[in-house]
Amino acid sequence: MIMKLKVFVFMAMMLVRPVFAVTHLELGPSDRTRLSLTVFNTNLAVIRDYRRLVLPTGDIELEFTDVAISILAPTVTMSSDHAKGFVANRQNYRFDLLNRQSLLERFIGRKVKYSRTILENGTFEKLLREGILLSIDPEIVKFGDVIEVAPEGTVSLPYIPSDLKTKPTLVFNGENRKKGSQNIHVRYHASGISWEADYVLTLETLGSLDGWVSIRNDSGTDFMVDELRLVAGELHRNSNNVRPMAESARMARMDFNVAVKSEVGEYHAYDFPGKVRLNKNDQTQIRLLTAQKIQTKKSYRLISPVHRYGNQPVQESSPSVWISFDNSRKNNLSEPLPAGNIRVYERQGSRETFIGESRIQHTPVNNEIKLEIGKAFDVRARRTQTAFRKLGARTAEVGYSIDVRSAKKHDINVMLEEKMSGDWQIVEQSQIGTRLDAATYSFDLKVPAGKTAKIDYVVRFSW
User: What is the pLDDT of residues 218-250, one digit of tens each?
Assistant: First the structure.
């Protein structure tokens, strides 16, 4: 009997136990104190969003609005600056945004109203019909005994469901044990934000180099960034399925002080002082560097494949034009250069001419940059097979003569790179060349102004 009484008392206590209400709060962009973006050149950004608000104690559902549409939800973390502050034990990303389809989905099987305006006897009248929405895409509605597909008219609905959001929202459910003001820090990754370097090299007696970074924001969200960091390097990532981004973009350009460079892990980071606005569907350019009095060198290079068979046709071509310079302190360049496109102009007096463009990879300090910018107009090469001898079942010798004609008013050097395959050996040559690697033999040919220079050689193949 005593045991039954204890059970009864326990059950009664459970029934009268108070139920604590959940406090619903919204933390919007007006509560933001700082926004930090670290953007990688691999279509990825790490966003750190700091906001401040006053919280009561107890159970709280906190809606954190104004986040990127392209957020990668599994990367979200949240923390408070107080040890006893808000701690989330559940988080959701609500990206079912308010649009025609998402709204109509909530009313399938329910009554909806369609209205349209008609002209009757010189006046406009509004016709209203009520039916049951059976399906969408296309809309199928039952009006009395008639079912219509894609009915004409404007849809009228009584309300907007509470689970539909006008903007992407993170929802955190948890407990707060520290009453009062506290800072909430949310960190997440987002796709659709990327950057790339663009350079302009102007050639005169000495060269000058201007570098810009182009940041493309296809995340679907505007950002007013307090701390912008761009990271260059090959970042390993697991594959993720991300939503397709908008393709249209506008352009904005800002001229900042030269970026502050630093090393981060195995990468290089570029920090930009001051606030930066990155509008959605925008491409924003910020100055990266400027350098003057750069020593550059122009060279000519002709790459030709060598074949081990006879009766090869005569080949006529022009060598490629290359511009090279050292990324070194001696050459007024002493910072790592991130990958990007580089456009080359030649200045003569007050006139500039675009002479080509190329692309550089991530280039550390004290490395040479080589740019192929086009083909030489007034330098031509004629490559003729002069000999072919079969020396055995698996050995043959092939001879070539290469004539290079120049119409230039000054002497030039043309690098002839002959590409071999298999086991090969140069057995005759009119000028000593250099074996660059297992597949390349090179001749540095000096061509006098307005004249022709020639190279003859024989190579033996074994296979």
Answer: 988 899 999 999 998 766 666 554 443 333 334
Q: What is the spatial distance between Cα 449 and Cα 317, in angstroms, rounded to a whole number?
A: 19
Architecture of domain 301-318+376-463: Sandwich (2.60)
* Average pLDDT over all residues of the chain: 87
Q: What angle do CA 277, 68, 179 make, to 5 degrees?
A: 95
β-bridge mates for residue 429, sequence order: 457
Q: List the one residue out of 367, 374, 369, 361 whose CA is nearest residue 197.
A: 361
Q: What are phi and psi of 5, to 5 degrees?
A: -65, -40
User: SS3 for 111-176, per residue?
Assistant: EEEEEEEEEECCEEEEEEEEEEEEECCCCEEEECCEEEECCCCEEECCCCCCCCECCCEEEEEEEE
417 close to 302: Cβ distance less than 8 angstroms: yes
- Each domain of the chain, given as residue ranges in start order, spans 21-33+50-96+166-187, 100-156, 191-292, 301-318+376-463
Confidence check: pLDDT of 300 > 90: yes
Quote the pLDDT of residue 162. Answer: 67
